[in-house]
Specification:
Elements lengths: L7 E3 L13 E4 L10 H13 L3 E8 L7 H20 L3 E7 L1 H12 L3 E5 L4 H12 L5 E4 L7 H4 L7 H15 L36 H13 L19 H5 L5 H9 L10 H22 L11 H9 L11 H5 L6 H13 L4 H13 L4 H15 L6 H12 L20 H5 L4 H9 L5
Parallel strand pairs: 2-3, 2-5, 3-4, 5-6
Antiparallel strand pairs: 1-6
Helix pairs in contact: 3-4, 6-10, 9-10, 10-16, 13-18, 14-15, 14-16, 15-16
């Protein structure tokens, strides 16, 4: 098997080769799946070359658990399936609980591996943990971007201004990277380690009717591929037009590259709104732009992360009169004066998802009816990360930064409060879809 070197980063340059004769460990973080996983495939490749066993370790970090209970349940249930599937591949699966860097370091000390492979995560919480492990590691640590089709650090080495600046870079490289995955094979070497202990996690929140796990993710993709024409209605929250793949992509139960391969194989209509091309634009260009933003912009979740034109404009309008100013509890409880905004928040509370078009309107009104842009961003991040099944994700941070701070956008006409940030209102929504139907649906959960 070959893996493109551009996907790989050696995080311990002073230790470039495996140390000793120990096992190979894949430290699973973002990409929680066995199939279509470049990091796991690379780990198995090294283990087979060295004729040693292969271990997967995943740590449930007590500092992160509880930030999104719905997502915790979704991930835990998926891990149960993954642990069971490891048995047929003769791969040991170890679940750790506690502080990731401490527990992982102790476990690595006990099993004495020769090399540690991990996947790529651009967000601060995980990168800090990875940095801590690397700083104390006595063995090589290698990172593989198993999430982006074109590796994040390869497509660009800086914060990209917008989709139009990263799009040609990705499209130029895409033919080299959009390739079929080699299969994961039953691992031929074993050291008698415990195989696939069944992971457990105390959770109480329902999964909102979305089945978690790698098998369900593949089934959801197959369903979307068969009904791709529905994607033409993706901007109408009253219709079934979205892919519904975001929870699986976020939790790593589905590879974006697998989704791209399956959809790209479909025939195109040649129309400007062709659903195949539209989906690939969102899946590849927009999603990888969000990874670029959070990887290279250390202030991706703060006012300082906004472009300078937006910061200046918002500062000029800080003292503008706000017709309404809501508390966090009022936002969270869908208790504003606006039935459309309340319906969007109720959709989130009731289903664990908010329609993509409504996410924009929802965030724009946070800016309009909060005391400051900082408060609007903080409320948006808190609600998104607490309730969305795909919360705590680069797409969420980039989307909020676009809506509130003009990230990946341009300056528009001056308005009170918004300054030059793009504006949205309920009348504009009503011209695009039946807002009364949307409000009726989420004001009455029995209609879902």
């Amino acid at each position: 098997m070959t893996i493109r070197l551009e996907r790989i980063r050696i995080l311990t340059p002073s230790l470039p080769q495996p140390v000793g004769e120990g096992v190979v460990v894949y430290w699973m973080n973002r990409d929680k799946r066995l199939q279509d996983n470049w990091a796991l495939l690379y780990a198995q490749h090294i283990a087979i070359e060295r004729r040693v066993s292969l271990h997967i370790v995943y740590c449930i970090d007590h500092q992160l658990i509880g930030m999104n209970p719905r997502q915790d349940t979704f991930i835990a249930t998926g891990l149960q399936e993954l642990a069971h599937d490891c048995i047929q591949y003769n791969i040991s699966f170890q679940l750790l609980h506690g502080d990731s860097s401490t527990e992982l370091s102790q476990w690595l000390y006990e099993i004495r591996p020769s090399i540690l492979i991990t996947d790529f995560e651009p967000l601060r919480n995980t990168t800090k943990i990875i940095d801590t492990v690397v700083a104390t590691s006595a063995i090589p640590v290698i990172q593989v971007d198993a999430h982006n089709i074109v590796p994040c650090w390869h497509v660009s080495q800086k914060v990209e201004f917008a989709a139009y600046t990263i799009r040609p870079k990705i499209k130029r490289l895409l033919p080299n990277f959009l390739e079929e995955f080699p299969p994961l094979v039953p691992h031929p070497f074993s050291d008698g380690a415990r195989i696939a202990p069944y992971p457990t996690m105390e959770t109480s929140n329902s999964l909102m009717g979305i089945t978690p796990g790698e098998g369900a993710a593949r089934a959801a993709l197959e369903d979307f591929v068969q009904n791709i024409q529905q994607y033409n209605h993706r901007n109408d929250p009253t219709k079934r037009g979205q892919s519904n793949l975001s929870p699986y992509l976020h939790t790593g139960q589905l590879a974006p590259q697998r989704a791209a391969l399956d959809v790209n194989a479909l025939s195109r209509s040649g129309a400007d709104d062709d659903p195949v091309d539209s989906f690939l634009e969102e899946l590849i260009i927009r999603r990888e732009l969000a990874d670029n933003f959070t990887f290279y912009n250390n202030s991706y979740d703060s006012f300082d992360g906004f472009p300078m034109w937006a910061q200046q404009s918002l500062n000029e309008h800080r003292n503008d009169h706000r017709t309404y100013v809501y508390t966090f509890e009022e936002w969270e409880g869908a208790s504003t004066h606006d039935p459309l905004w309340n319906a969007a928040q109720q959709e989130l509370l009731q289903t664990g998802k908010m329609h993509g078009y409504m996410r924009m309107y929802w965030a724009k009104k946070l800016l309009e009816w909060s005391a400051s842009p900082e408060e609007a961003l903080a409320v948006g991040i808190a609600l998104n990360d607490m309730y969305e099944l795909d919360g705590l994700d680069p797409n969420g941070y980039a989307g909020l930064a676009w809506s509130i701070g003009g990230v990946h956008d341009r300056a528009w006409f001056q308005r009170p409060v918004y300054g030059k940030i793009r504006y949205m209102n309920a009348n504009g929504c009503a011209r695009k879809f039946d807002t009364k139907e949307y409000i009726r649906r989420y004001a009455n959960p029995t209609l879902l």
